[in-house]
Amino acid sequence: MRYELLVGLRYTRAKRRNHFISFISLTSMAGIALGVAALIVVLSVMNGFQQELRARILAVVSHVQLTGPGGRLDDWGRVVSDAARQPRVLAAAPFVNAQGMLAVGQAVRGTVVRGVLPGPEAQVGEIGQHMRAGTFAALRPGEFNIILGADLARALAVLRGDKVVLIAPQGQVTPAGVIPRLKQFTMAGTFDVGMIEYDLGLALVHLEDAQKLYQMGDSVSGVRLKLDDLFAARSVARQLTASLGGEIYASDWTRSHANFFRAVEIEKRVMFIILLLIVAVAAFNIVSTLVMLVTDKQADIAILRTLGASPGAILRIFVVQGAVIGTIGTAAGMLGGVLLGLNVETVVPAIENALGFKFLAKDVYYIPDVPSDVRAADVVTIGLVSLALSFIATIYPSWRASRVNPAEALRYE
């Protein structure tokens, strides 16, 4: 072991006459640990929100959506067969998408009405996995059954088997004037995907029933596709646009909800920068620790210099001590941050129960729970940045120690 490392480690663990220096060292370690842990936990929660948001959106939104001009696709059978030839396409399902209004007694709610074929739709989306009552099989042509989001059904105060009037905005011309088209549906089930946007604003009916109500004939609004890799959606959409030709427009899930994912990504970067300042402040406390230590150890430095230690050796001694402080603080913070990040979904509900209120109300936030996804790349990056800041903080006081003049330091000893 080189003597610089030996002396630096001894200075780190030695009992000093000036206990204030030891207190500053411990404070620096604690500050670095706290900053690193907070950074890991926050980024893990942001990753969890991003992953959960993507999963919940894709439970309702398809990977790729093919539509025609004016929201109508006439030759949709050919589009389905041509799209199915793409190697990455696993399933395809036609749909009708329209606006409507649901009325039950005095309760009225606007909603998005989606006409689907239960079999193909179950292969493309995941709503069938989030059914709270009833099944997709209840949507049979000609029976005019409807499946509502759980919050929408609660707002209308309807249960399975109740009657709901669906009002279409397309008018019907009569001698008395233009009146809206309406049809009575039977509530056949509810679903809950965990996002208020869909649970409160989406209603599912059979494709043929939607075509009749909205006078679309044999046309549909478009075709929904499921891919073997959701991250290949953009490239597959471009390929399908080129291969299908005509006026087919392909849109992928990254475009339909791009604002959500951009917002999460921007917030993640901003939070990284803000919380990194906590680590930087704690790391630069090492500067004050080492400056006071150099002043306290001037006689020791002078003796080492008279025994033949070079200025570079003195510099390395104090770099070692600052690096030890930074390494211990970083390691403790990484350990604490990973442990807390892996248990956020347990810790947060316990805190909510103790305080008696919920941090994320479902009627305000898209995701009412606090998810977490600890990623090794983020943990390693945070650890390396923290160590780099700690090493940078040691440069000036260590250089100052190497410039101590032995004669001046020993003059009054």
Radius of gyration: 32 Å
Strand order of the largest sheet: 2-3-8-5-7-6
Given as residue ranges, the uncertain stretches (5+ residues, pLDDT < 50) are none
**Topology as a string of helices (H) and strands (E):** HHEHEEHEEHEEHEHEHEHHHHHHH
SS elements, strand count? 10
**Fraction in helix:** 40-55%
Q: From the helix content, strand content and strand pairing, which structural class follows?
A: alpha+beta
**Biggest pleated-sheet summary:** 6 strands, mixed, barrel
Give the overall form: elongated
Strand content: 15-25%
State the domain count.
Answer: 2
Q: Terminal Cα separation, in Å?
A: 31 Å
The number of helical segments is: 15
Chain-averaged pLDDT: 81
Can you summarize this structure?
The protein has 413 residues and is of the alpha+beta class. 54% of the residues lie in helices and 19% in strands. The longest helix is centred in the first third of the chain and has 40 residues.
